[in-house]
């Protein structure tokens, strides 16, 4: 495993992290604690120390799986990033809630679920600019940093071209930007990444495998059934993506190199990217993801 410093936070994170949206059930898979334990144990064995989650991955469900695991391991071995701003109701149904009082309740609920006294990174989660520009919110969050409940603040931007929230990071003491970035979606290179570099912000690349399209598993013409989250994607977009992936496979991926590993390493070859946070459904996928670090 290789490690990079997460911008001005000073945290050293594994370049491959573990994204945990899937633990909330929206991948169409219901995880057990034993399955989560096996995934996180494999990650630790391979040198991964970064876990990214959110309060709305299930109703604190993903956090609870992680907290149960952490309670039986060493907390200091992990950099735990979570997020705020939504109440989960049911699969794919959330309500935005970004007012300061409610976010404080969300933080306390996240700490309880995660079985910890502090989170390493607490991220504003894909909210609009009008709720981001709320001094009361950031003042409250700064107080939580001073109290030791949060080590660092970050922003997970909903649009991968949200320059406003990126540019305001230093002002609100947000030290990390999380953004969709992958070989099919390079938009952050234009404006977001230069701003991150200028401010020395850490960058977490989410959806680095483009929702699995860059995994190498799917050929043009693939059809996803209604148990698969990709069933919700626009069919024409899916067709175009699969055709582009086939071209990338032919023209860019070296012979004999696993495409998913290549795609993760592709993100990390941009020096502004601190870490990628792919999801995974079993220890074998964790192992495959971790192997991407060898391609750097």
From TrEMBL:
Pfam families: Aldo_ket_red (PF00248). Coiled coil: none annotated. It comes from Paenibacillus lutimineralis. Residues 16-294 form the NADP-dependent oxidoreductase domain. Transmembrane segments: none annotated. This is Aldo/keto reductase. Gene3D superfamilies: NADP-dependent oxidoreductase domain. PANTHER family: NAD(P)-LINKED OXIDOREDUCTASE SUPERFAMILY PROTEIN, NADH-SPECIFIC METHYLGLYOXAL REDUCTASE-RELATED. It comes from the Bacteria. Keywords: Oxidoreductase. One of its GO terms (molecular function) is oxidoreductase activity. CDD domains: AKR_AKR11C1.
